[in-house]
# Entry
Amino acid sequence: METPSGKEVPAKRMSPRMLNVLTALIGLATLVLGVGWLIYTWIVHLEIPYFAIPLVLTVPVIVAVAFRNCWD
# Structure
């Protein structure tokens, strides 16, 4: 991006601390959604989908890393 005087302005970036906090919050929010879904299916269907437990634990990490890579 250039200013009217012809000088380039560096792109504004988030601070590393803010990026770390947002990454952690997104990971935790995804984990809470997954655990909530597990509890909901357990109550409604009276069984725990055992195949989903590893997914609920690993998907938040994948989502947080994908979010982080969007900003790096």
